[in-house]
Amino acid sequence: MPSSPSPLSPKQLEVLTFIQTFLHAHGVPPTRGEIAAGLGLKNRQGIDQHLRALQLKGAIDLVPGMSRGIRLRAEPMLAADMPSPAEESGLPLLGRIAAGSPILATGNIEDRIQVDPALFRPRADFVLRVRGDSMKDAGIQDRDLLAVHRSQEARNGQIVVARIDDEATVKYFHREGPHVRLMPANAAHRPIEIDLNEQSLTIEGLAVGIIRPLTQG
User: Fold this and answer.
1) Least packed by Cβ within 10 Å: which of 70, 81, 92, 123?
2) Domain residue spans in the chain?
3) Is 134 noted as a catalytic residue in this protein?
4) Which of 11, 42, 136, 171 is catalytic?
């Protein structure tokens, strides 16, 4: 049985998502310079390091000697993972998710985002709109569209969409026994502490990418 892909760091996830979004918008992969400009990074060497890490983790292939020599590496898709006719028109956008204080999650489809779910690893099932800045140091900004892979399980250190009673939020997940800490990526925000013996918590999914308009800062 093939091993699962190695998890990506928040910065690697941000670089991969930019490549996916740029490719979808322009039909060609970005250059190193376009990645640096799009993400507001000045260190081209750092971009190369992230790209090599993405190649080692099986997310992309790098073609030597080409300025746009980045190729997304597609995962085999099982029959059970094939999109339904409704999914073929894009990913459903479900309400708004707070990346600060949790807000009510409606669960209603507001729109459909025209992005191929298979561009993400693992493939995305739906998209949620972020509100707030508590995950900004993980590259998740206010008004971003967060691509989410539906899952009820999470490992410590993963970025999750978690529902607390009737509210939902995006945070780093850390659990020790019945105690869960939902950790922000911004020192100005406090962790959310949950005792599972007293409070309900549901993992709705794992963050697998960010869809951000190229004009957004």
Assistant:
1) 81
2) 10-72, 90-211
3) yes
4) 171
